[in-house]
Design a protein that fits this description.
Blueprint (H helix, E strand, L loop, with lengths): L1 E6 L4 H17 L3 E6 L2 H5 L8 E4 L2 E5 L5 H7 L1
Amino acid sequence: MKNVKVLGTGCANCKNTVKLIEEVARAKGVEIALEKVEDIQAIMSYKIMATPGVVIDGQVVHTGGVPARSKVEGWL
């Protein structure tokens, strides 16, 4: 199971990123542990400059804007 974190303070792009990841995981039948991280200190610990950020298994894979569906499919 992949551990997926979406980093962001609750903006529309952050919410859309969470929704997209959930949709792709469901469509592919992949079980994930999805966590939304809104704490500024926790977000800053990943040293990202733009949100939403996506972290998979501890590694930052995306920052800034909603990722493309194909990109999310590649992650999962």
